[in-house]
Amino acid sequence: DHNRSLRKGFPEVIFGQGKTADQIIGIMERMKSQESIVIVTRIDETKAHRIADRFKDVEYHADAGMIIWKKTDFPLLGKGVIWVISAGTSDIPVAREAFLTAQAMGNRVESIFDVGVSGIHRLMDHRAEFDKASVLIVVAGMEGALPSVVAGMVGRPVIAVPTSIGYGVSLGGLTPLFAMLNSCSSNIAVVNIDNGFGAGYMASVINRI
Amino acid sequence: DHNRSLRKGFPEVIFGQGKTADQIIGIMERMKSQESIVIVTRIDETKAHRIADRFKDVEYHADAGMIIWKKTDFPLLGKGVIWVISAGTSDIPVAREAFLTAQAMGNRVESIFDVGVSGIHRLMDHRAEFDKASVLIVVAGMEGALPSVVAGMVGRPVIAVPTSIGYGVSLGGLTPLFAMLNSCSSNIAVVNIDNGFGAGYMASVINRI
Amino acid sequence: DHNRSLRKGFPEVIFGQGKTADQIIGIMERMKSQESIVIVTRIDETKAHRIADRFKDVEYHADAGMIIWKKTDFPLLGKGVIWVISAGTSDIPVAREAFLTAQAMGNRVESIFDVGVSGIHRLMDHRAEFDKASVLIVVAGMEGALPSVVAGMVGRPVIAVPTSIGYGVSLGGLTPLFAMLNSCSSNIAVVNIDNGFGAGYMASVINRI
Amino acid sequence: DHNRSLRKGFPEVIFGQGKTADQIIGIMERMKSQESIVIVTRIDETKAHRIADRFKDVEYHADAGMIIWKKTDFPLLGKGVIWVISAGTSDIPVAREAFLTAQAMGNRVESIFDVGVSGIHRLMDHRAEFDKASVLIVVAGMEGALPSVVAGMVGRPVIAVPTSIGYGVSLGGLTPLFAMLNSCSSNIAVVNIDNGFGAGYMASVINRI
Amino acid sequence: DHNRSLRKGFPEVIFGQGKTADQIIGIMERMKSQESIVIVTRIDETKAHRIADRFKDVEYHADAGMIIWKKTDFPLLGKGVIWVISAGTSDIPVAREAFLTAQAMGNRVESIFDVGVSGIHRLMDHRAEFDKASVLIVVAGMEGALPSVVAGMVGRPVIAVPTSIGYGVSLGGLTPLFAMLNSCSSNIAVVNIDNGFGAGYMASVINRI
Amino acid sequence: DHNRSLRKGFPEVIFGQGKTADQIIGIMERMKSQESIVIVTRIDETKAHRIADRFKDVEYHADAGMIIWKKTDFPLLGKGVIWVISAGTSDIPVAREAFLTAQAMGNRVESIFDVGVSGIHRLMDHRAEFDKASVLIVVAGMEGALPSVVAGMVGRPVIAVPTSIGYGVSLGGLTPLFAMLNSCSSNIAVVNIDNGFGAGYMASVINRI
Amino acid sequence: DHNRSLRKGFPEVIFGQGKTADQIIGIMERMKSQESIVIVTRIDETKAHRIADRFKDVEYHADAGMIIWKKTDFPLLGKGVIWVISAGTSDIPVAREAFLTAQAMGNRVESIFDVGVSGIHRLMDHRAEFDKASVLIVVAGMEGALPSVVAGMVGRPVIAVPTSIGYGVSLGGLTPLFAMLNSCSSNIAVVNIDNGFGAGYMASVINRI
Amino acid sequence: DHNRSLRKGFPEVIFGQGKTADQIIGIMERMKSQESIVIVTRIDETKAHRIADRFKDVEYHADAGMIIWKKTDFPLLGKGVIWVISAGTSDIPVAREAFLTAQAMGNRVESIFDVGVSGIHRLMDHRAEFDKASVLIVVAGMEGALPSVVAGMVGRPVIAVPTSIGYGVSLGGLTPLFAMLNSCSSNIAVVNIDNGFGAGYMASVINRI
Q1: pTM score
Q2: How many domains is chain F partitioned into structurally?
């Protein structure tokens, strides 16, 4: 397994939520001898600093709640550009998780984080850029409409990521999740609520075929 | 009550689904002596013909599954134009129910039934027209994104109507309903799934203030 | 966009929940140069004081958990009176959010916050006043019956706002939401759970047509 | 057990839905030798006629979808009057099931089937009568508000019965069920959706204490 | 209204959860001049002591999280004995809330708090006592089977109270709630999850007819 | 795989619902050459007769909607007696499916199909017999309480089978399913709604250890 | 739009369910002049024959409930091989819909329809083949585990398709849908329940990048 | 009852969550005079130390959040070996609860806690061992696929335990629960979410037959 990981740049992931800094450090110690990339997701600042104190060679990304450790810098494995698109400021942590994962896996990644369906003309201005992407990751909470609209503008695969941001009938992200699965565009597939890591990973795997 | 109805053009409604033609005829007989408009919704062709045989002065609208009886032609009670917008062919019966209700209640009504969020540029072409409306009724199934997008294009009140059309996570219309309630536009309020009548009624009441 | 906002009094809103005081201040700084009204919702006392320290020209409304900043006092844009009605003391913050939003957007607003369906005669006493309203906002938790009852008493549009107050089968407000959507009155449309801001905004847009 | 039933007038019930006429006849044959009242609920006209052909001494009530067989006429076991109240014509079968069950169990029963919360003044006209009841059964679909309103008008126990009538977010009766359980009146308890039999039975048991 | 309350012993209730001690004290001050009984539910020890410091004439019941204030001692208004039955230690606070409410409303109340359906023989030992009750309140979490079993043992009305105690598919009490509504016994009606107050109130109203 | 099946009496199952008689016959033809037992579940009379015409050596059990084909009669593989217990007549088809599956897999099986929790003394009369069982299968719809009560009476493993029989909050069997999973007895495990075959299979596997 | 479709082989889709043969024929007539591929999904045999009578140049695939019309034979647009994998016979129609869509869009497609997670060794035998795929479409009902297991065996993107086949807690396909979204493999994205067309479309778009 | 418990090694369980250390100590004091094993589940370190200070003869297992008190060491009551299998580190507390319960009840227990369906070959390596088990307990969160895969590898009964570990559509463990109930393997039965104790208990009862 390790050989495969080293060659191809598949990362190992540690889901940080609910684990102590010590537990994460323990798992990282075991992994670092065998893996080429280790990604820790969903960690707060306190844990992150404890981990960064122990391993000097990690990058900590506060905006994504994420730590990345790489054995060496990665060669460019992905063929085209991956775009990461989101609307609201609240969706940024998930969008950044997707961005950093895709980047760590050897892709060129572009992003725009402030285009929403209630201001559709701004979105339209980016059409040409979006259409040149290899894969698009579209992150949205609320009514979850952004991936449908973006997918209708391009002939490329869209990975849709619902977020749990919202209140009332947001239902912890089930509403945008269902809306995305129910999209009237067909070049869309969906990952779990808030799963920026999975979206970045899936986009990377697609970008290598 | 009857005086109010005659003066103001508030219709009485008979929800036809689950009632026999005889039951509907019985209720209409009682109502016709007291009301100025009677609307029967959700009736199939067979029932409609039985009712039209009994009352020569009704209009039957097959595309909306609806019968309308009016004492006299209505004066124009609504101040501005009500627009009815929908995307898919499957949403047309609900959109037509809204259209005909608003029209029967004394409004000028315009409609467009083939603009969706996966072809956003077509929608943009209508922006100027939409913005001149007094109220907009936007009917959508699937991901329920159309009302959000339209509301973002205008400064007018939008009545959103989810439809039960779809499969899988459409959940009988709950997904577009929740998406509409979760809209990132604020000039939106929502009625029950498939409730074209209610949307037309609410838009009419708004258009009279 | 900014010009439109200045002319017409459409506010920008910052959903305060889950944002730090610093984040809110940052967003407000950008917005104040471009917008005529900025509304911050769902903020607690501590955050509110931090923001009020920074911007001396904001109003803080503790009962609504809301901060309002206006470039200048607003002209009266709405034609008629908007009524805000609620039953329980627990619904007051949401009702006040609706009240203040409508007022900030240039409307005359009246309110009554202690009439419920289990004491129906008190409600009946207000019938004449309610019927003179241009739009009514009705806020309710529990069984969510108040909007149906009020809508049955008037010929005006009712914006229904479910609240998340309750326990057991309140289901975080889903029960009053569904009850309101299922209303046997037709002059009703509904906004998201606890969305007092949206109700005030929608009522204002209606009151300007 | 049989002795108890004979003495006290507790009926046996056969839930007719999903059973063939032959199966029902078979069960009735066994029961008739041991019970004093047998009630069959939820049967359509065809089955009812087959059963009435076999047992000449049954009463068939088409409006309630119900057959009642009684060994002899019942003495009056209940102390006061039970009122059965409903709003819509669609709720009548459930309301009649409650009415006939309570009557068969030896109670004086009154009913009114056309008072709803969107016409609250009609309901108010009955306040004095309702307050003299021993127990009230209130049947409602849609938003399920009627039991709350009635319970607020009287100091008597109210048995609330939600019905499955409706569409969209009616959710097969879950919405009125939850609304009733969430009532702001406290003299209410609730039975299963469409369970007119259970409401009539419970009201009878209460009326005998 | 006040006169009625004084004469008949109907209490006013303050739902304490989510209110500050000061808010509760304010409401109590207004109510004490007009009501004969005021019940505060769902308050923790800290709030309770603050309230008891202010009003020396209240009783605080820590096991039920409840404060009761009565103008004078109550006459016995209920005709028979109300039994309150529960199984697990976790259900005791809800059972006690029902017990104290019924007692405050002028009823003789008996209780047993440790009989469950997995030890059915213990329950059977109490059959004779239960059958002499006027009304029975049965409180249960988990699978919610206790009310069905008790109702099968007696010919008296059973008020079933589901509790939110549990984990996994307890679903915050929805599972016992649905089980109770789905009971194969017919002398049962149900109140909201954890609503001990409502059960005690309803049982009292029944016991006065 | 085939050898294992022949030696040990593990059946192959064809879920008949939604398959045509021809499809079932086709699958059976392939299986009969390789398997020692083939069980077809959920088939109606018409399909069953078509299949029985084609294969003369099958047994058709109308009460369980089931066809069983066995290469030869089975030796007794199970060590003790398996009891199948259910309450209502509607649960019998599922209970019979469990019974026949367990019997076909080489077990001695006993059953009782008319004991319910609303008549608990009848259940108690069987305690001694139940306690001698090796495994008990308990089938129940409605409130799903029977497995808890039976499991509390014995020290043996209980396989609980919820049925979809019911209406309203039965929720297609979800209510008894959740109630069984939430049981206060610990010697219980649960299979899918209406899965009599699975219960019989699991009980057989247990009875062979 | 048409030019794009002709050049790139993007099909238009008509969701056949709920439409009459005449409606489908009408839509096809308009589309055939502008599109290069038209796919009709979810049509039964009767409708299919009506359509095939009208248009001699369509292919009807009974096993997928699908009609395909192509202007000309398609060039190979996809770079690698797309694999379509499913387990049960009931999942075949959905798997075939995916297969035929991908094939019509110009891809080499392979399939295997009888490998499931309860016979894991059979699946393992195909590992080498699967790993050479460009994209894999994995179709599963029941517990929805197949995509996770396959994704764990390969370094390629997996499009997971839940099916509505099942009973009880299958919940119309929600259970496999949620299981797939919750996968512990990260090279997975999911489409709507039974959406074979969408999976084939998305896989094709990926295979062209 | 006590005699039975002493002879057979049935433990009493105290569900520690939501109880104070003092409450648990009180219950243990009563139980210790009558029971042979007392198990306390779901307690944190602080409570555990308070209890261990009071009772010197308890074992505290921090990894399972569990305290076990035994009157004497237990004889081996179970006939074969019980295997406890889980995949993720997050599932270990539940798996350990099952392990320790089964061990305390007099069984030989083996475990492996790091085999998952996304690395299926590792699981296959253990096939021979698993097949020699008497009963297998399989603990899984996420997509809940592990029990299906393991059950397909052995001819032994599998007790499946879903865990609440996860996010998004994990739905607090409902997703793996439903997946397990929906398994295409038939030698599976399921216990409540996170119910390691119940699984260990049920496996023990099976292992004694």
Answers
A1: 0.95
A2: 2
